[in-house]
Structure formats: structure tokens, C-alpha cells
Specification:
Elements lengths: L7 E4 L5 H12 L3 E6 L5 H13 L3 E6 L5 H15 L4 E4 L14 H29 L2 E6 L3 H4 L5 H21 L3 E6 L14 H10 L8 H12 L10 E2 L9
Parallel strand pairs: 1-2, 1-4, 2-3, 4-5, 5-6, 6-7
Helix pairs in contact: 1-2, 1-8, 3-4, 4-6
The chain binds NADP nicotinamide-adenine-dinucleotide phosphate.
Length: 250
Amino acid sequence: MSRLDGKAALVTGASKGIGRGIAIGLAEAGATVAVNYPPTEGEAGAREVVESIEADGGSAFALGADVSDESDVRAMIEAFESAEGAVDVLVNNAGILTQSELAEMPVEMWDETMAVDLRGVFLATRFALPGMLEQGSGSVINVASQLGIKGAEELVHYSAAKGGVIAMTRALAREVSPEVNVNAIAPGPIETSLLDDITEEWRERKEAELPMDRLGSVSDVVPTAVFLASEESDYYTGQTLSPDGGDAMH
Ligand code: NAP
């Protein structure tokens, strides 16, 4: 029997990147996986993820919702619950990254980051949690960032949102244990489209700075998510696990 047989998981922002990898990893471990994507984009990517899981003998379906939109998220959780019952594993992965020095940052940039990277985590958790608590079990896995621990210049908004996700993970873990486990993953720089705009100079500097001498790949993150979704991590809650090449060492 696979580690996640009989479990139903929802992964937000799973049309590509880390979310795509986690969705496939959870399905490989036996879970039925809902692949969330933002309705305005990402549908083709989500369809590709579902097809790839099904081609491998797994079970998946796509669910469109903007994680920053309350009615979208409510509807997504309702659709999930009518298909699968309560969410067993919620992976709050959807996120955006933009860059600006704070002194020049448009207020909209701050607001949009908070809406997707922090409010999105709150909304999906808010609406999935009652079902988890009613069934007496569940696992919430929040994808934060090492920058939520150490911070980074030109990324004050992103660092603040991700630091908020880590604090929320700890506070909620205290509130809903022992029924529901709440943990975070704080990856370091991972090769996905989120890093599309980085300069070669930044990459070389970062690689030299990292104890592991290289940026990470999606496959460096997926096993942590599968572990946190499985019963093997039953005694972990409020924790932040960091596949970050030694970047933050918190
Ligand atoms: P990515 O390749 O850009 O993927 C982000 C995903 O989130 C995409 O599927 C995107 O959909 C989706 N998304 C964006 N806004 C959304 C919204 N409002 N509602 C629903 N889905 C939305 O980035 P990634 O690197 O895989 O990042 C995944 C998570 O890891 C993020 O939370 C990020 O902050 C975190 N992280 C990444 C790194 C890194 O270096 N890559 C490091 C630490 C933490 P569309 O593309 O269709 O818009």
C-alpha cells in the first residue's frame, strides 16, 4: 500500500513549478489530487498535470480558483468536498514574486503580494479546516520561503508575506492540534518560472553563497511535502522544514 492511499489532497497553484511537482508526488504516493490553477491562466498547465498523473495510473482533477478571491476559494472547497469529502491534505503553494525597493514600491505591489501569498493561505485553510476538524484529521502544508526567515533586499513585501505564513503555521498548529497537523516548507531558490527574471550575475552570486553550491530543483522540495502529508510526520506540527541548500539554517 502506498503512503497516501485513500487520501484526498488539494494543491493550490499546481499548474506548474513546485505545485506541479508536489501534485505529481502526492499522486505517486497514492492520493487523489485536486490541481488548482488561477481561472484566468493556468488551465492548460493544470490539464497537463492531471493527464500526466492519470497516464501514470493516478487519480486527479483540476479546480480553477484565484486563491486571493473569497468566493472562488469557497466554491473550490465546496466542489472538492462534494467530490471527495473533507480535504485530507491541503498544500497552500500558490504564490507570486515581484521585486522592488520598498522606497519605490507601488502600494498595489504590496497589496497583491499579501493577497496571493498570505491571504490566499488564510482563505484556503479557512474553508478547508472545518471539514478536517469534523473528520478529526488532516494536514495543512504551507509553502513559505527561506526569505520569510532571513529576508531579502527588494523583496520586503514577499519576505513579510512568507514570514506571515510561517507565523500562521505556528499559531494555527497550536489551535488545531492534535486533530490537524500544520507545517510549512521554506524552500531556498528553486529553478522554476518564479526565477525567470533573475540575472546571471544574481545566479552566480547566489550559487557561490549557498553551502550546497547550486540552486535547488523541484525534486529537492517534493519529498518534504510527501513526508508532511504522510503518517510518518504525525508528530510534526508547527514546524518549518527547509529544503534550501543551507541558505537560512534557522
Ligand atoms: P511558479 O512556477 O510561478 O508557480 C506558481 C503557481 O502559483 C503557478 O501555478 C501559478 O499559476 C499559481 N498562482 C499564482 N497566483 C495564483 C492565484 N492567485 N491563484 C491560484 N494560483 C495562483 O512558482 P514556484 O517557484 O513553483 O512557486 C511555488 C511556491 O513556492 C510559491 O508560494 C513560492 O513563493 C514558493 N517558493 C518558491 C521558490 C523558488 O525559488 N522558486 C523559493 C521559495 C518559495 P499561473 O502560472 O497559471 O499563474
